[in-house]
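Extended Data, record Pyocin activator protein PrtN
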Amino acid sequence: MSETEKQELAKALEADLLKLHGSSILTLKQLHRALNYRSVDAVKQAILRGVFPVHTFEMPHRRGKFALIKDVAQFLAEQAFNEEKKDD
């Protein structure tokens, strides 16, 4: 998979996630489903331990952590790209 194909995959994933969730920001519950974590608590633990693979942030006057769909899509595309490299 070329760099261009990886970016195209990231854009397609971003569009799919945006269509599914209707916002460019994902909550912990949505992150748990998008990244196939076992539970929201598992996502929280990964963030606390510093091993969550996507940048999260807080928003003023809102509870919890959030992530941008763009970051999630980029991470997923990179994982698909890295897996393909292993198979070669």
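Summary. The chain has a mean pLDDT of 92.
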